[in-house]
Design goal:
Layout: H1 2-29, E1 38-39, E2 50-57, E3 66-78, E4 81-92, E5 95-103, E6 110-113, H2 118-125, E7 147-148, E8 155-157, E9 163-175, E10 178-189, E11 192-198, E12 207-211, E13 221-231, H3 245-251, E14 262-267, E15 274-280, E16 284-285, E17 289-297, E18 309-316, E19 322-325, H4 326-329, E20 335-337, E21 341-347, E22 353-364, E23 376-385, H5 400-410, H6 416-428, E24 434-436, E25 450-452
Parallel strand pairs: 16-23
Antiparallel strand pairs: 1-7, 2-3, 2-13, 3-4, 4-5, 5-6, 8-9, 9-10, 10-11, 11-12, 12-13, 14-15, 15-17, 17-21, 18-19, 18-20, 18-22, 22-23, 24-25
Helix pairs in contact: 5-6
Length: 453
C-alpha cells in the first residue's frame, strides 16, 4: 500500500513538474508589455523630419560602421503612388556620398533613389526599417498593420526556425540623441537575444543590437544602429552643405568607375593560410581611392573560407616595420572578418614608387578575444603612380618581389597570369628591355623570338 501511494505521489509530482515547466516555458516565450499604444514602421513620419544614425549591417563590409543623415524633403509622385522623398548624406570613412532616397508610405522601405546610395539603402532597409516586415501602417492588401505593445507576439521569423518577435520590456534609455522612453522588442537567435528599441509615435527605432543565427559558436553582429540626432520641422536642407567626394576625386584625375579586377593569390609566409586578393583600379594612384576584396582561405581547401579572422592591412618599410595601419585609421586594434571575405576601401597615401602592402593575420578568434596562435602575413609590392600616370625611376635592379614571384611560379604556388604581370611591370618600368633579332630565325621560318636584356 505504501509502495503504491509512493508511486502515485511520484507520478503526480513528475506530471505537475512537467506542466509547470511547460507553463514557465510558454510564459518565457510570450511577450507583451503594459503600454496602451501600438506602433508601425514610419509612424508619425512627416516633411521636415531630420534623422542622423550611426549604423552597420553584416552585408555591408561585415558591419563596418558608417553615418547616414536623412532629411524628409516632401512628397514624390511615382505613377499612382505617393512616396516620401528624402535627401541623404552618408559618411563612410574618407568618403561622403550624397543623393536621394524614395520611401514608401505604407512601409517606409527604400524603393528607389540615387544609384550611388544602393549599398547603403540596402543596409538601411535591413536594419533601421527591418520591423516593417511585421508592422506597417495598413493591414489591407497583405499589409501587416500596426502592432500593439501589449501583444504576446508580433510574428515569427521564418529563416531562423520560427523564433518570435516579442515586445519584451519598457525601458528608459539615454543615447546621443537624448533620453527616450522605449519598448524593447526582441527575439532569440543562436542562444542570444537580439533587441530593437522603439518609441511610440516615432517613425523608426532609436537603437538596435542584433545577431546573426549560428548553430554553434559566438553569433556575430547582424546589424547595429543608434540615433545620433533628430530634429523636427527642418525647412532648409541640412544635406545641401555636402557634396560627394567622388566629385573631388574625378576633378583630381582619379578613376572613379572601376572594378576590383587585379588579382593576387598566395599563401602567407608560414603557409598557415591562403589569401586571395582582388583590388582596383589596376593602377593605384596617390591621393585616389582604392577598393579591395580580401578572401581568407583554408590552406587545405580552396573552397573553404575561414571565419572570425582578426587581421590588419599595413604599409611597411623594407624591415617590415609598419608605416600605416588601416585598423588604426578606423580607430580599432584590428580588423575583423566574420565570414572570411573582407571589403576595404581607402585612399592611397603612399608616395609614388613601389609600396609594400601586408595582410597581417593575427589568427582566428571571436571578436574581442586574442588569438592563441602565432601571427602570419602576406606581403605584396605594388607600384604607386602620380595622377599624371608617371612614377619615379626605380633602381635598375630586379625587385625582390619579382624574384619571389619567379620562385613561387616555379613551385606552382602562383599561376601564369600573376607571373606575367610581374614581367609586364618590369617591361613597363624599363627594368627589362625587349628587343627582337633576326639571328633568332629558325630554319622553319618562324617569327623572330623576343630576347630579354
Amino acid at each position: 500500500m505504501k509502495g503504491s501511494l509512493l508511486l502515485t505521489i511520484t507520478i503526480t509530482a513528475l506530471l505537475f513538474g512537467s506542466l509547470m515547466s511547460s507553463s514557465a516555458f510558454a510564459q518565457f516565450q510570450a511577450g507583451g508589455v503594459d503600454h496602451p499604444g501600438k506602433w508601425h514602421a514610419g509612424e508619425g513620419l512627416k516633411q521636415g523630419d531630420f534623422f542622423s544614425y550611426s549604423m552597420c549591417h553584416v552585408d555591408y563590409k561585415e558591419c563596418a560602421p558608417f553615418e547616414m543623415d536623412m532629411w524628409i524633403k516632401g512628397d514624390k509622385q511615382v505613377g499612382s503612388e505617393s512616396k516620401w522623398l528624402a535627401e541623404v548624406a552618408v559618411f563612410d570613412g574618407n568618403k561622403i556620398i550624397v543623393g536621394e532616397m524614395e520611401l514608401g508610405k505604407i512601409a517606409p522601405e527604400p524603393t528607389g533613389g540615387s544609384e550611388e546610395l544602393g549599398l547603403y539603402r540596402g543596409a538601411f532597409k535591413s536594419s533601421v526599417v527591418w520591423l516593417s516586415a511585421f508592422a506597417t501602417s495598413d493591414d489591407s492588401s497583405g499589409g501587416k498593420g500596426p502592432k500593439k505593445f501589449s501583444d504576446a507576439s508580433w510574428g515569427k521569423i521564418g529563416n531562423i526556425g520560427g523564433e518570435q518577435v516579442l515586445p519584451l520590456v519598457l525601458e528608459k534609455i539615454v543615447i546621443t540623441s537624448g533620453t527616450w522612453d522605449t519598448v524593447q522588442v526582441g527575439w532569440k537567435t543562436g542562444g542570444v537575444t537580439s533587441s530593437v528599441w522603439i518609441v511610440d509615435d516615432f517613425p523608426f527605432p532609436v537603437k538596435a543590437k542584433t545577431y546573426t543565427h549560428v548553430s554553434e559558436g559566438i553569433p556575430p553582429t547582424e546589424y547595429e544602429f543608434v540615433l545620433l540626432d533628430y530634429k523636427e520641422n527642418v525647412q532648409e536642407s541640412p544635406i545641401a552643405q555636402y557634396h560627394s567626394t567622388a566629385v573631388d576625386y574625378a576633378a583630381a584625375g582619379c578613376e572613379t568607375n572601376f572594378e576590383k579586377s587585379t588579382s593576387v593569390k598566395k599563401p602567407t609566409k608560414n603557409f598557415d593560410y591562403q589569401i586571395h586578393i582582388f583590388y582596383g583600379p589596376e593602377d593605384l594612384v596617390q591621393g585616389c581611392e582604392s577598393q579591395w576584396l580580401i578572401k581568407f582561405i583554408s590552406k587545405y581547401d580552396d573552397t573553404e573560407f575561414l571565419n572570425q579572422v582578426q587581421y590588419d592591412f599595413l604599409v611597411v618599410d623594407d624591415n617590415l616595420s609598419p608605416l600605416r595601419s588601416i585598423a588604426q585609421e578606423e580607430g580599432v586594434d584590428f580588423l575583423y572578418s566574420p565570414s572570411g571575405q573582407a571589403i576595404l576601401d581607402f585612399i592611397i597615401k603612399e608616395e609614388p614608387g613601389i609600396a609594400k602592402y601586408v595582410i597581417w593575420v593575427y589568427g582566428l578568434a571571436p571578436q574581442g578575444i586574442v588569438p592563441s596562435v602565432t601571427s602570419d602575413y602576406l606581403e605584396i609590392s605594388i607600384p604607386i603612380f602620380t595622377s599624371d600616370g608617371s612614377m619615379p625611376s626605380v633602381a635598375q635592379e630586379i625587385p625582390s618581389w619579382i624574384k619571389n614571384n619567379a620562385g613561387w611560379w616555379a613551385d606552382g604556388q602562383i599561376d601564369d597570369d600573376s607571373f606575367v604581370q610581374g614581367i609586364q611591370f618590369l617591361i613597363k618600368e624599363g627594368i627589362l628591355k625587349v628587343t627582337t633579332t633576326s639571328s633568332s630565325q629558325t630554319s622553319s621560318g618562324s617569327e623572330p623570338e623576343a630576347w630579354y636584356e
